[in-house]
Known about the structure:
Elements: H1 2-10, H2 12-24, H3 37-44, H4 48-60, E1 64-67, E2 71-74, H5 91-112, H6 115-129, H7 135-152, H8 156-169, H9 172-181, H10 184-202, H11 206-225
Antiparallel strand pairs: 1-2
Helix pairs in contact: 1-2, 2-4, 3-4, 5-8, 5-11, 6-7, 6-10, 7-8, 10-11
Amino acid sequence: MMENSIKATSGAAGIFSKIRAAIINGEYTFNERLPSERDLAEQYGVARGTVRAALDQLERAHMVRKKFGSGTFVCYDTRFEHEDIAEETSPLELIETRLAIEPHIIRLVVSNANNREIRKLEEALENVLHARQDPNSFSSADEAFHLTLANCSQNPLLIWMYQRINDIRSHTQWSHRKNNILTRDKIDYYNDQHTELVRAIIRRDMDSAVGRMTEHLRQAKKDLLGQIPL
């Protein structure tokens, strides 16, 4: 039993919990670079592979982001942990904000995304294409897809802003309308738009990619307005 306990605290899950706690407690601050994998491995007395796996988990939890050739940086800001702007933001205001931000994110993606980031975007597209069976599965995959786009922009502030947008997208105001909007046909239509967007990004076709994103969000706004009583 004791051996299992030691493994639980020294394995990747245990290192993930320790670094996550350090970030939440403010030992590592927003946009600060974490120590190297080697230094973290020495600090926690584990192999570098264990640290690498823990950092991968932290990245999936949107606590850190990896910049190729530069290191791993904190992208979680404790100052906003308890603020709930979602309570004051309507679904329509959320779509309008996305229309203001996401087309420019696409411009940066086309300009900045490297091959590794494009592969991650293709993986996120595959996930959203396979999540057509119900609104909840699609909505989660869609949030991850659009956050991956933000990550590919290589702009830390935009990435942070999009994480806040996803927090609001998960709020009950959107969830209340989700089942009515996200029919199987509508999910397939949105996924066609996602696919065309990624193809335009891979071609580095700026105008087409920005146009696809703008069209996608305008359609989402139109669908949302159809669910708001006049």
